[in-house]
Structures are given as C-alpha cells and as structure tokens.
Amino acid sequence: MTIKRATPEETLHFMKGTPGSRRAFLAALGATAAGFSLAGCGGGGEAEATSAGAPAAFKVEGGEQAVLKFYNWDTYIGETTLADFKTASNVEVQMDLFASNDELFAKFSAGNPGYDVIMPSNDYVERMVAEDLLMELDHSKIPNKANLLPEFQDSQFDPGWKHSMPYVWLILGIGYRKSKLKGGVVPDSWRSVFESEDYAGRISWLGESQDLFRLAFKYLGKSLNDTSAELVKQAEDLLIKQKPRITNFHSDDGQDLLARGEVDLVIEYNGDIAQIAAEDDDIGFVVPSEGSLKSTDCMAIPKGAPSPNNAHAFINFMLDGQVGAGIAKAIQYPTPNKAAKDLMDEAYKTNPITFPSAAILEKSEFGKFTGPDEARRIEEAMTRVKAA
Amino acid sequence: MQDWREDRKFFLITMAPPTLWFVIFFVVPMSLVWLYSFGETTGLIGVKISGTFANYARALDPLILTVLLDSVWIAGLTTLICLIAAFPIALAMTFASPKTKAWLLMLIMLPFWTNLLIRTYAMISVLGTKGLINSGAEAVHNLLVGIGLPMGAFAPMPLLYNQTAVIIGLIYVHLPFMVLPLYAALDRLDKSLIEASLDLGAGHFQTIMRIVVPLALPGIVAGVIITFIPALGSYLTPEMLGGPNDLMIASLIERQFKRANDWPFGAALSFLLMYITLAFFIVRGMIDKDAAKRGGH
C-alpha cells in the first residue's frame, strides 16, 4: 500500500475532517503531507475532550519534557487518542502526516528529521532495519505488548518485535458484487482474476506491481517472496494472457470501482472493501484459498529520536486496550490488539471481511523486502505487462 | 530615448531576481536530474554518478520506445482535435462584442480554477457505466421501450477505461491551452484584411484558409506546442481514465522514482521526454525563421 489516491468520498471525509480511511486527500494531489501538522492537544488543559476510558495515572518513567513528534498516516488515529495521552502522561504529541511509505523512507534516508515515533509498513520496517534507521525497542517499557493477539505475539518480518510494534493489519483479497457472481459461486481462487474468462471485462487489478506479482506467485503455487527470474517470467506470461480481460489497473481505489458498478471483481484490501460493504449489502470479500499477501503497519522509533522514553511510553499507550478500541472504532481497520478487539462491538468483531478466517491467514504471507535487483526485475516485468 | 540596457545598475537590479529564481528553481534541479541520468543506484538510498550511458540504453529499449510512441500518438491526436475545436471558438471570441468576449474568456478560464483531480473525477462520473451519459441513454432507451419499440435490454456503453476516455479527458483539460494563444493571435489580426478578402470575392472558407490561418500561424504554433507538451507528459488523466493498455510515459517515470527506486533510469526517461520537447522547439524556431525570411522579401 504505497500509492494512496483519495476517492470522492474520502475527499468529503477529508473536508469534513472525519476519519474513515488513512488514504489521504493530500496524497491524491501528490502533495507532501509535511507541514500539515496537528498538535495533539491545544494546551487548553485537562478539560480537553477526553474519553472516559483512558488509563488514569499513566507514568512515563524518566520521561522527557519535550513534545513528542509522531509521524503517521492521515486519518489513522482515534479521535481523542492524542489528547488522552497528554492527559495521562502530560506529554504533548505533535503529529505530522505522510502519504506513502516511499515518502517516509525518503525523509529518513537523509537522517532523522526529529521524529520520535513513526509508522512504516512491514516491508519498510525490514528496509529501515537493513539500513540501520530504527532503534531497538526496550520491551520492559512496553508491558502492553501482552495485549496483542496470540498470532501477533511474534512476527515474521521483525523477529521478536525487536524494532517495531504492530498497529493495524491488512490483507489482500477479491472484493465482489454478489448479484453478479457466475452461478452464484464465490470466487474463492485467484484463478477467477488471473486465468479465467468468467468475468472478462469486469475485473480490476491493483496497479501496485510488487503486490500484483506476489499474488500471481501465490496463484502459481509458490511463496509470494519467491522472486526468482523464472517465476517472474511465468507470472508475467500469465498476466499478459489475462490482461485483455481486465478493465483497468486501479490505484488503490478499487473499492470505488466496485461500488460504482464499473467492475464485478476487484483485488483490494479487506479494510477498503469493509468500508463499502457497510453501505452496500451486495458487496462481498473473499481471501482466495491459495492464501494472500498480509501487511502490517507498525510503530517504530527511528534512530536519533529526541525523546526515546516518551516514545516507548507512547507505543505502550497505543497498545492499551481502551486506547486501541478508540482507534479501531475511528479507523475501522482490523486491530492486532486482543484487549482492544474484546472491547469492540459484535458487528466489528464478527465482520468476516475485516477478519478473514485464521486458516486463511495461516496460509498467507507477509511480503518480505527483497533487494533492489529483485524489485527492478518485477518493475520491468510490470512495464512489459502494461505495454503488452 | 536611452536604451534601458545602458543603465547597468538598473539592469542588474531588475535582472537579478528572475535570474536567481531561474538558477535555483530550474537550472540547479534540472542539472541534478540530468546528472542522475548518468548514474547508477548503490544500495537502497544512494545514487552514484558514474557517467554511464546504461540508463539511456535501457530507455531506448523497443518496449519503452513503444510506450513513448503511444504517448506521442495520444498527445498528437489530442492536440489535433484541440486545434480543430479551438479554432472556431477563438474566431467566435474575436468577433464577439466586448461584453460577450469577456464572458467567453471567463468560460474558457473557469475550469482552471478547479483542481485537475476534481475535474478528472467529474469526467469519471460523466463517462462511467452508471455515469451521466449512460444513465441518460438508459432513460431514453426505457422511454422508447415504453412507447412499444422493440429495443432489447439496455447495454451500457464502455466509455471509461479505454483510450477514447483518455483522449476525451486530455482534450477537456487542454482545450484552454489551445484557445487562448489562438485568440490572442486572431484578436491582433487586422480585420480590414478579412473585409478586403471578402470584398474581392473570396468565400468565407477561402478567406479563413488563405488569409486568417497564415496570419495566425504563430498563434497556431504556440497553441500546438503548449498543448502537445503537457499532454505528452500527462499523468493523472491516463492513470485515472485509462484502461489496461493506456500506459503513458509519465506513469512509467513516476514508478521509477517511487516504487522501483531507480532514480537514474527515471531521470533518463525524463530527459528523453525533454529531448523530444526540445526537438519541437527547434522545429518551431525553424518555422519562425522561415516566416521571418518570407516576411523580409
């Protein structure tokens, strides 16, 4: 999920200032979200909007006086989260926004511009660790790690959560329009989008080359992190053959194409489809039986952070059950936090779109960061697919 | 009168800010990109400028050239249609009363005040399967069925996500770029020449082709250039309105700078585009020179 383009609905959301999706309007304009910063608390004191359930006395051991600088996706925080942190710890949070992992990475590749907590996705956690840009976390300062769901107690991409803590997770699957299904059969295989005539002219692929190829690898029965030249070639041939049957490559606005009736099948993220399914009963979502691509957005402390103690306290605070529930309620993405999930209403907890079955999650993989040569190989194959 | 260049101090003071601006915001960044195009990526973040031509060699790959040719074709067609559509508009504006003229100018300029992204979304809601055109057609269809015509089921027209949609979108965006220079050229035209032509027995069409067009040629050339160049490098329109086959060069460049993390190759592609643009200016220069020569005789 790197290129975020706002949909008209999101533009409205943005105008109204309501949270709903992290995909930023600013990203749509290609603008950097930097400079658009929000102080967590107006300095008006304790009477600020504070949710009742915030942890009362929250001690920051050896905390610094400075303002905590937090670099986050747009519309990716609870309504009162930052104010609650100020109340609990007396540390003010200043949040700046970014629109894509590439933007985040580019900003840190020239040195930490002064942030304490950042929010890269899993493969970018790997990338930043490889470039030695992240600080090791002191788990003794993050006791709320115990709140994480069992399957999130450890991580494939950051073994032992040495450098990051999960915040929200996502999975790719097929969003579909129930009334348009051929024979009423749920498209339970990637075959329906990659090697079938059934939905010719009614399919939208995601335009993100690395993700699309990874899903094709999965369909071909391989690991999605197997980027060998032969497999890339095989996937390329598969995609070129199927391309005449697709409508377009969407730029992470596939849910809108589905909602507007432009297509019947779309490769999209669970959270995005959950948003439109809430308004349209005819929308369904399935993670195909071959398994899929999972990703996680993680909180991390960049090297050179001015207030690492506050940063640890903030990460611990974000993993608190009440706080996590407040965030999940606002952003509607699946939370990896058990304590938070337990506090949510049934509609959220049992939503099969937001939470696909454990068996299918087991079959799915996180995208590993592959070297620049592998990335280039896929990019070039994608160019051939698009130009074919 | 004294040549203003003779007052050196005044000359320096007035020229310094634009020169500085030009150097800081054009020469320096473009030189950097130009240098990058001779570099190679090292590790995840670094670019080493090694003087290699490998990026240009990759950019001249037949596949990339196909994309480039497609882009030239789409931009060229857009420019041609814009020219054909804009000429009567500009002509009408020239002969309108001053009050109407102001209104017409305003109508041409109005879309500029709206963000391109929002205008493109507007196009999506016009062209979509359930968009304005299709739902209008469906209403007419249902009406005809209602009065008993055997029409069969309504099948929405595929107006979006194909090359036609891209070209419609590009024309919509670029038409003002063509109208304004044409209008500027036609407005300066000595109207008595047209009257003379008509008096001497030429028809309206002949007058336009033999009097108006040659005199407005500089305006036409300017319009063609400032329409063609942005159309060639357009990114948002083909990305949002195009189908799976409508890859334009700007999208390719964008991917190199972002996900592919291959700045040198992206830089080489950008400069390939620049060289094409430059070629157009050379052609224009030749036309101007030609015109000057003819004017001299």
Supply database-style keywords.
heterodimer, A: 388 residues, alpha/beta, D-Maltodextrin-Binding Protein, domain 2, 2 domains, seven-stranded mixed beta sheet, four-stranded mixed beta sheet, 16 helices, 11 strands, 35% helix, 15% strand, globular, disordered N terminus, B: 297 residues, mainly alpha, MetI-like fold, 3% strand
Layout of secondary structure:
The complex is a heterodimer of chains A (388) and B (297).
Chain A: H1 8-16, H2 25-28, E1 38-39, E2 68-73, H3 81-89, E3 93-98, H4 101-109, E4 117-118, H5 122-130, E5 164-177, H6 191-194, E6 203-206, H7 209-219, H8 229-242, E7 246-250, H9 254-259, E8 265-269, H10 270-277, E9 283-286, E10 293-300, H11 308-318, H12 321-331, H13 338-342, H14 346-349, H15 358-363, E11 365-366, H16 372-387
Parallel strand pairs in A: 2-3, 2-4, 6-7, 6-8, 10-11
Antiparallel strand pairs in A: 1-3, 5-8, 5-9, 5-10
Helix pairs in contact in A: 8-16
Chain B: H1 8-36, E1 39-42, E2 46-49, H2 54-59, H3 62-95, H4 98-109, H5 116-127, H6 132-146, H7 163-188, H8 191-199, H9 204-215, H10 217-232, H11 236-241, H12 249-257, H13 263-296
Antiparallel strand pairs in B: 1-2
Helix pairs in contact in B: 1-13, 3-7, 3-10, 7-10, 8-9, 10-13, 12-13
Structure report:
The complex is a heterodimer of chains A (388) and B (297). Chain A has 388 residues and is α/β, with parallel strands linked by helices. Chain A folds into two domains: 8-169 and 295-349, 3-Layer(aba) Sandwich (D-Maltodextrin-Binding Protein, domain 2), CATH 3.40.190; 170-294 and 356-387, 3-Layer(aba) Sandwich (D-Maltodextrin-Binding Protein, domain 2), CATH 3.40.190.10. Chain A contains 16 helices and eleven strands. In chain A, α3 links the parallel β2 and β3 (93-98). The longest helix of chain A is centred in the C-terminal third of the chain and has 16 residues, at 372-387. Chain A is globular and about 60 Å long. Chain A starts with 7 loop residues before the first helix and ends with a helix. Chain B has a single domain, classed as MetI-like fold. In chain B, strands 1-2 form a two-stranded antiparallel ribbon. In chain B, α3 crosses α10, α7 (163-188) runs antiparallel to α10 (217-232) and α12 (249-257) packs antiparallel against α13. The relative contact order of chain B is 0.12. Classes of the chains: A alpha/beta (388), B mainly alpha (297). At the A-B interface, β7 and α16 of A face α3, α5 and α12 of B.
